[in-house]
Amino acid sequence: MIFSILPRLVAAAALVLPLGAPHAIKKLNVVATTPDLGALAREIGGDAVDVKTLAKPSEDPHFVDAKPSHIVTLNRADVLVEGGAELEQGWLPPLLENARNDRLAAGAPGLVIASQGIRMLEVPATLDRSRGDVHALGNPHFLIDPVDAKIVAANIAAHLTQVDPSDAAIFKANLAKFNAAVDAKLVDWQKQLAPFKGGKVVTYHNDFVYFAERFHLDVVETLEPKPGIAPSPSHLAKVIGTMKGANAHVVLVQPYQNRKTAETVAREGNGVVVDFSQQPGAIKGTDTYVDLMDTLVKSIANAFQAKP
Amino acid sequence: MRVFRRAFVGILVVASAAHAQTSDSVSRRQQRTVDSLAAAVRGLQQRVDSLETTASAAPAAAAPARSGGAYMNMGFDALADFGWSTTKDVLSLQRGDHDPHVRGFTVPNVELTFDGAVDPYFKGFAAIVTKLNELGETEIEVEEAWAQTTSLPYNLQAKAGQFLGDFGRQNAQHPHAWAFVDQPLVLNQMFGKDGLRGQGARLSWLAPTETYTEMSVSVLNSFGGTTSSFRSNESGDIHGGVPVDHPVDGVTDLLIVPRITSSFDLSDTQTLVVGASGAFGPNNSGTKSRTQIYGGDLYYKWKPEVAAAGFPFFSIQAEAVARTYDAAPRTAVETGVALPAETLNDWGAYSQALWGIRPRIIAGVRGDIVRNSTSKFSAIDRQDRQRISPNFTWYPSEFSKFRLQYNYDHRAGMGDDHSLWLQFEFMMGAHAAHKF
Questions:
Q1: Count of A–B CB contacts within 8 Å?
Q2: Hey, how many other C-beta atoms are within 10 angstroms of the C-beta on A165?
């Protein structure tokens, strides 16, 4: 009796417990920490990959809950794309520790450090928290510079190719397609923003410097007095003064930031609030990276155009 | 770059000086020209300087993006309490090691933590805790020091060293991660003032299922100051007799702690974590007497789709623990009276709700209860109690916090007490990651 059941049990166990390496015809499981990285992974991986994103588009990427379901997601990942500039340091390390996934270990081909090769801005000379929650490796909000997005895309393509050489041609073609699309669009975006060269903007958090540098805008103030420090009334009064003095009208705010505060400042400083998001999907019609940038460029150009 | 800059400046200065000499008179107009040229040079110099900075900073920043500069993360965390209680004997009321201990000021937890990769196979962690006791004397303890595997197959993970026992939710958390000023009563009663902690090993397995399920079993020494219900020297406070020392003859003389945890995302915005734990081992009321402890715990959290800095949120955490303590026939230390064999059946629970009102402001309330079966020996560690504690926490930043908490205590036979505690915490060093 036991002998007749045994093979069936073994077969059942083999089905229930897929302990082996990922199957050849299976799509690569790619996990991205934030939706912007996820969007790039989708562009490059195409049909050869399944992309899951840990942070929601509407979520503050600094403060994502380290939910146990994320541990399961990371446990099954073949590739992880992370920012690499400490944006996720408040929640990613405990997830990775419990995920027990060797494929994502430091130095493994399955771990993509997006910031690799990026010229980081605002790398602090000294680490001093009296200046707020500064990131040791520089400002981590680099993906809204399309040139940086191309670097990250190339980085992702290189790693996907290493993990899954059989689909190398797909990744190469997708990367070329993405680069061509961004290059073409970049000319258009630069043209749209050219009339506003040197235009002054105010942001809530210090998350706009890469875009500002690329398109020659000037971030004159942030509503947070220091990164991660809540706006105080005295600081907001100073911001309003700066806006009036410097003729800055555009106040940029992301969905997870306090829009009421931004509205008050805009009203007092004769400005307008512009909703922007670094994360595809947070604002309607911005599911791909190019759509996201299109919307962002357009809304900023409109805000400058409409300035009082 | 610098040579070029100096040559450029030199040429400009010589040119302007020559121009000044060939003129018949040094008119104001010429002076203005020189001034404006000097200003232009200064401007150019600044631009060249900034170019130099950018050029030299760029390669360093674009290098492999892990500059941390150390092989180990170090953190420092200090907790201080200030307050008043209606009881003069605050220690009898606040029995946790990291609770406030006196009317006035207490510094119950000053913690140094170290963590990092040991090599490609292990990760290491240590927490060295110093504190000032109720007499103001410095005490030091190796709270945790362990290594954990990073690459075992089959979703396994092993850990060995001194560590906080994996029983329930709060026991394994360090005091700075607690949502209240003090230890829940039931954890104090079952595991003592420092919670369940010891030297041993833990093996855990992450089930290959769609929903998160982790099973673990820890094997720990059953003696030492932090194994209160087992063979701790302080166990006399539970059973009243002289602690019986006996050698470790076999596996059953060790403390076995199994646990299972599962988690469900009820929706995009709601998560539930449930767990069940046990702790089984010998106690020292006799040579063959044993203790069984069972626990159930849950954690629920709601956070909306759009949340600024993780706020608002609402969470509930609850744990219930029951203990069966087989006390052998023994002689009461204090009275010399013979105490019969008896089984002590005790239980307790706490439940706490937190409401993150707006960024960095949290209101909370916790209810505590412990109930004990009657015994021939009345122990301070087996006292029927209940407590209700509303509190309010404000985080100026992620690295500091103020907490104000009121405790309404009721102890059977001793009446009511009221306490008000203000806690301040600050941390430095490595950015603390938050477990769920």
A1: 140
A2: 10
